[in-house]
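dude i think i finally got it to work??
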Amino acid sequence: MQALITGVGGFAGRHLATFLSQNTDWTLYGSVFEPVGTHQDLQDSTGVWLRRVDLREELRVQELIRDSRPDYIFHLAALASVGRSWHYPWETISNNVRAQLNIFQALVTLDLRPRVLIIGSADQYGLVHAEDNPITENTPFRPNNPYSVSKIAQDMLGLQYFLSHQVPVIRARPFNHIGPGQARQFVAPDFASQIAQVEAGAMEPVMSVGNLEARRDFTDVRDVVRAYYLAVTKGTPGEAYNIGAGAAHSIRELLDTLLSLSTARIEVQQDPKRMRPSDVPLSVCDATRLRDDTGWAPEIPFERTLADVLDEWRRRVAAGELD
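look at this
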């Protein structure tokens, strides 16, 4: 079997490549946007064959699909920052839709029908009401940021190619996932990096935070990529699957847990610049469909995930690797 992971150099992509290299005998191919050499460690540790491809370029995508001839495609590549999408809405929407469309068109042109997992987001559900929780796959979409619109478009595009061209598409809708390797613009590594800098004496013992009251369903990324594998191998083509732990933690709880693991006494200050134009008070996942179809369940506790994130940032700060 051969598998292609787009965006393999990203947060979830790296964890997925590691999981597949350790749990399957598949030949792994991966696309990256950056020079291949910047991901040499990933290639060395997982054996993934890397190709630098701008997925917005139709002919390059067709070459990638033709050369790898995958049995499975994990389409992870996307602009994934909600905050950035407010400033660059068209870039977010056009990038995420065009890249996926090029993959589907390549499959149709080459007459290939691998099982394709496309990655949506809990943000598709948008402004959910309290009574909507826990959120099922039938909860209406109420997008409240440009990123969520791009993910709805990807989701519907996947359904369309399943219905129109019989491409066996499985649509994943992961809720918030956290863990080692995540970029600093996301909440857990943002907090952890600040704490690690304070502990190292590189920053005053004052942390800047945004909205702490929002409650989210956080799942360890290592559990999430296992869900991706089970969804693409055991899921029903055309179906959508929520992925989440089924429990909500407030951002304040996340922060307090990280602070409890710290050796420093730190003051917390709210920064208006970190507040988003709109936010959802509560989001809890109902992953019953995924559990019933694949047997998946999360295994890594919330506290262990945060401890791993903080330990990673302690190592990075000690090594001078903040960027």
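The first strand starts at residue 2 and ends at 6.
im so relieved honestly
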